[in-house]
């Protein structure tokens, strides 16, 4: 995924969507680390960024050092697909739509019901946001994991009912 830094507007909108939440924050594909740094400065602890690109991890660490937050935030060079998210309550992602469509399965499988996922730049396909902040390229979407699970289970129930109805129609036609 190509690196495009989050704008000040995007960071502001992500933080607005996270307002009132507490605990730690994980940024998947954290790039230069600006979301993690801002989240820590707004009270999220621990604030951890996962990024595969070693240059971006070093840049993020430099930004943290320059902001006087070295050692207070964490940037890890790890594959986001291998990170255990089961204890994460606040997750941010600025990733391409092709990655988001794959990532939603991991998030649904691992995150607790009270987790909030905030996506910047692109929304999750087929997910219904609970809140949206900003306009244009600065827009960010917040997703409640509990609501996503309820929506998914409802779709499965509706699909099952549709299949059963179709089977019944076919039997009646015979």
From TrEMBL:
<comment type="similarity">
    <text>Belongs to the ANT/ATPSC lysine N-methyltransferase family.</text>
</comment>
<dbReference type="InterPro" id="IPR026170">
    <property type="entry name" value="FAM173A/B"/>
</dbReference>
<protein>
    <recommendedName>
        <fullName>Adenine nucleotide translocase lysine methyltransferase</fullName>
    </recommendedName>
</protein>
<keyword id="KW-0949">S-adenosyl-L-methionine</keyword>
<dbReference type="InterPro" id="IPR029063">
    <property type="entry name" value="SAM-dependent_MTases_sf"/>
</dbReference>
<keyword id="KW-0808">Transferase</keyword>
<keyword id="KW-0489">Methyltransferase</keyword>
């Amino acid at each position: 995924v190509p690196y495009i830094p989050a704008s000040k507007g995007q960071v502001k909108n992500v933080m607005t969507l996270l307002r009132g939440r507490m605990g730690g924050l994980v940024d998947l594909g954290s790039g230069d680390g600006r979301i993690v740094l801002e989240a820590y400065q707004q009270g999220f602890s621990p604030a951890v960024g996962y990024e595969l690109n070693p240059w971006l991890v070093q840049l993020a660490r430099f930004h943290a050092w320059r902001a006087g937050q070295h050692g207070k935030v964490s940037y890890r060079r790890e594959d986001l697909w291998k990170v255990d998210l089961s204890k994460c309550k606040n997750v941010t992602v600025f990733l391409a739509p092709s990655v988001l469509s794959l990532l939603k399965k991991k998030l649904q499988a691992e995150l607790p019901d009270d987790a909030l996922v905030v996506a910047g730049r692109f929304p999750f396909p087929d997910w219904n946001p609970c809140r949206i902040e900003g306009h244009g390229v600065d827009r960010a979407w917040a997703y409640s994991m509990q609501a996503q699970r309820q929506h998914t289970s409802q779709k499965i129930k509706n699909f099952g009912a549709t299949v059963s109805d179709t089977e019944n129609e076919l039997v009646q036609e015979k």
